Design the sequence.
């Protein structure tokens, strides 16, 4: 009969083993927490958007429309910032100060404020107040001219900031009540009301290098709530006091409100804000190709083998298009121009204008792979393209390149 040795531990050894095990467990837990925190920060800005209806706003179905407007204003207006900017402008003789103002919404307890990019564009000094005598210094955290959104931050935020909750702009319907709070013509904490007049309105950002006509801002909200200069950057709210849009533009022949205003959807802001806070900019993937709309070329008499799509005129070395083997124009031995590729679709969506490509890429992330359908040498072919940032030499690219 075989016997196995039995090892016995003394009481002292048992205690020592227990202490050692506990220390190891604590160390592993601490390491896990550190890794988890790092990973969370790496994949997120660390902020979460407030979405709950303020408790001071009664159920809109139980009160009059007038009382609902009063409730929303009382609850949200303390979180609407009056933003003043100072910009230095140099002429032939001197440097002059120019002042501007706009509105913004407090989006967290740390003092981050969401506004329009054009409100703080080129500002050397930014100050904020909330309707009282106290003035706060603020700094630019990040801006995105393509969506006309920016985030600033109070340098010494108070402890009692009112945070404006976020709604869901994908669930809006024409006809529902909206409220706008802002600072038109310097009149702080002004409330106007109206309805959603239209949805999915195409508007454009201000012209920027690379986009002389401005970038398309999709799915803008149209409202008849009075919006004037100074309202820019302020919240467009629903009857629950949730921000559903950021008031940005008006259609006005004379410069004043005629009941046609536009707001950037809050869901666009939700996508943009984390990158603005983390990177100071929105990092969008680029193909890195010089593109020409086929329809534009055909209208001007060029003979092409297809009637729609984006002709690849050139490819930037080191770009996503270059890595995928996409070809631009070339010349043969006789000097004749040879057509390379024409982009027909990306992930099944037709690509007839540069706006089509911009809209698609704006919703993709760096590192994703898209399927690009090409017309090449008389046939259609699909190539996978892994999206990357634009190479550093992108500053030399022409405006038509994406």
Sequence:
């Amino acid at each position: 009969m075989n016997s196995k040795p039995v090892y016995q531990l003394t009481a002292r050894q048992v205690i020592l083993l227990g202490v050692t095990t506990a220390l190891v467990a604590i160390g592993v837990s601490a390491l896990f927490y550190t890794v988890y925190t790092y990973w969370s920060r790496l994949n997120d800005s660390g902020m979460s958007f407030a979405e709950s209806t303020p408790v001071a706003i009664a159920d809109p179905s139980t009160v009059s429309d007038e009382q609902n407007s009063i409730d929303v204003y009382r609850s949200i207006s303390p979180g609407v910032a009056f933003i003043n900017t100072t910009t230095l402008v140099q002429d032939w003789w001197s440097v002059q100060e120019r002042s501007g103002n706009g509105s913004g919404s407090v989006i967290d307890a740390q003092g981050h404020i969401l506004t329009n990019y054009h409100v703080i564009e080129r500002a050397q000094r930014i100050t904020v107040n909330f309707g009282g005598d106290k003035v706060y210094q603020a700094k630019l955290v990040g801006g995105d001219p393509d969506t006309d959104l920016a985030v600033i931050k109070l340098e010494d935020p108070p402890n009692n900031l009112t945070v404006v909750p976020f709604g869901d702009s994908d669930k809006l319907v024409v006809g529902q009540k909206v409220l706008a709070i802002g600072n038109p013509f310097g009149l702080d904490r002004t409330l106007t009301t109206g309805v959603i007049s239209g949805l999915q309105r195409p508007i454009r950002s201000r012209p920027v290098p690379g986009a002389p006509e401005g970038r398309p801002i999709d799915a803008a909200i149209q409202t008849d709530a009075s919006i004037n200069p100074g309202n820019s950057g302020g919240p467009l709210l629903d009857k629950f006091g949730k921000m559903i849009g950021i008031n940005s533009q008006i259609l006005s022949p004379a410069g004043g409100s005629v009941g046609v205003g536009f707001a950037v959807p809050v869901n666009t802001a939700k996508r943009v804000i984390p990158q603005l806070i983390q990177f100071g900019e929105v990092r969008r993937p680029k193909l890195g190709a010089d593109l020409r709309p086929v329809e534009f070329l055909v209208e001007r008499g060029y003979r092409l083998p297809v009637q729609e799509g984006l002709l690849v005129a050139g490819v930037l070395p080191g770009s996503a298009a270059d890595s995928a083997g996409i070809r631009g124009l070339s010349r043969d031995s006789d000097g004749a121009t040879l057509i390379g590729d024409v982009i027909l679709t990306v992930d099944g969506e037709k690509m007839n204008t540069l706006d089509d490509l911009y809209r698609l890429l704006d919703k993709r992330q760096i590192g994703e792979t898209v399927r690009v359908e090409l017309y090449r040498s008389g046939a259609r072919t699909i190539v996978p393209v892994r999206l990357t940032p634009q190479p550093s030499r992108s500053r030399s690219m022409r405006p038509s390149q994406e």
